[in-house]
Amino acid sequence: MTQSVQPQKGYLEAFAEFERHVAAGPSWLTPLRKAAISRFREVGLPTRHDEEWRFTNPAPLADIPFQTAKPGQQVVTAAELAPFAFAEMGTTRLVFVDGGYVPDLSSVGTLPQGVTVSSLAEAFAAHHPAIEPHLARIAKFDTAFPALNTAFLSDGAFVHIPKSVVVTEPIHLLFISTASAEPTVAHPRTLIVAEENSQATVVESYAGIGDGVTFTNAVTEIVVAQSANLDHYKLNRESRNGYHVATMQVQMGRESVFSSHSINLGGLFVRNDANATLGAEYAECTLNGLSLVDGKRLVDNHTSIDHALPNCNSHELYKYIIDDQARGVFNGKIYVREDAQKTDAKQTNRALLLSADAQINTKPQLEIFADDVKCTHGATIGQLDPEQMFYLRSRGIPKVEARNLLIYAFAGDVISRIKIAALRDALDAILLAQLPQR
Amino acid sequence: MALLEIENLHAEVGGKEILRGINLTINPGEVHAIMGPNGSGKSTLAGVLAGREAYQITEGAIRFGGKDLLELEPEERAAEGLFLAFQYPVELPGVNNQYFLRSALNSVRKYREQEPLDGVEFLKLMREKLNILHIDRELMNRPVNHGFSGGEKKRNEIFQMAVLEPKLAILDETDSGLDIDALRVVADGVNALRSPERGFVVITHYQRLLDYIVPDFVHVLAHGRIVQSGGKELALELEAKGYGWLEAGAATPEPVTA
User: Fold this and answer.
1) Contact A394 B74 (CB under 8 A)
2) How much is the average pLDDT of A241-263?
3) What is the pTM of this model?
4) CA-based nearest distance A166→chain B, Å
């Protein structure tokens, strides 16, 4: 494998430093970190020759000398936080700045008994029993970025919903990157465990303050146990110089329901890997996405849904609005294993290209080993319809508004599926404000 | 002052001349029917008036309410009071019909330096117009024309016209594909809007619509020119005799050169 030795060395040195001075947590974490860094040493950073990075050149991630972000150096004020807080959503919010938990900006509302919403460090200290069986076990660290994240694991967000408990108020996990003179990297980690028959809503959002170069390398592990119902949202509103690589790994139990919406409005370079394993019967998994990409930005969504057992459903709808010289990538893998009869899987990818230079690479990848299944996929790429434009304008609606009305209608298909009304309304407004004014 | 004055209008699409010298004047309160065989240029004329980009105007002038219509963008024409009921109304999936219409009305009001209507005021206006036109309110909660039947689409056009209250409405083969009941609804809608200030151009291939919308003038378009004008009785004559006797004369003068 081709690999860039120099940048890898930077991470290895940073790890040595981290291990000496920063690393904390339970003793079982130490061998995990060591295993992860040696895996990273082995595989190195990816290059565009790796199949998984064929359409997204990961070179900048290797070329930019990112320094490990130092939590606590930059202070974020409540006023700076406000635009990203979605205060109307509820009162439970954990805030992390440059990878470090900030209790002063965080709040935990009234939660049903037994529910834990805390930093991972706090949960380690409390010896929470749901951590060791799941942390770094749901998400494997066989590839470079999850391996790096695991190697640098010391804190993060932890959500635990006990058996049969229903949490109605959304839980907001907010990760902020602040800019500094040097490019910095943080490795946020999230573990969400929804035990049997429980229900919760979690919003995981990433935001940037300032215009410096930042890199967020996030890993989120999610367990949705038998008959549990988890509604998940991931928002990216990082700065226009933000690099973002995120891996979400979901493990689903029997009759469980998981839905995730990935809304990408920010960042310069965004790569999301959303992977779900439907490892028991009658699980239902929905992965939807909306990406608004302009300038020279890039958003790459890789999804992988693994139907391991019979009678599971999966739905995917990924939409892209691409302007200027921006690029979108969609790679949707669906595995239907030999045992997974009666699988119903549907994948849709739609892109709206607003300029002649806008680009999308889309690649459905279905691997089906069972014979009694329903699997469909479709990809459409289009431009604004001139006939629709003329119709709107012939009714008196000026060109810019007509254009935005059509773009908004295209996006509305995903936005309208967001179940949290306060978030839906907020995103509506943000989206409208971000649409091109020409 | 005349509402619309078309003078020696020549227009082409993709280098092919479709309109070859149209002259037409419409005064407030008048209903003009434009009839003609397929390919005679009826829809091109409607498209040119509404500001479709595909057409190239090579000669002539159009004044609308004294303004040079050809200088105006489609949305400005609408705001000045021109309305085109489309032959094939366009579907807008994801755009709510009511939201669309309110945006249209408020855009037009903004152009005219009038205050926008708020939600309550708009609902009141909408209900009033729905009642006049006997249109089901449920249509307003659906995406614009998306999943509408042919009749519903045409009714929706007439409803938009009723809300926007244009000075000049052009109906481009609004009758095509409509059954007699839908045709009556459309015609009733138009008749309800007839007024001394408002003009109509009714483009149709068949005379039947003109039983319900009785025109003041009938013009026959053939090969891009008005070859005959008359009163409403001309429509009946056309129904009986066809277009052949008028077309024959129109085709000869200028051979179309590539």
Assistant:
1) yes
2) 98
3) 0.90
4) 33
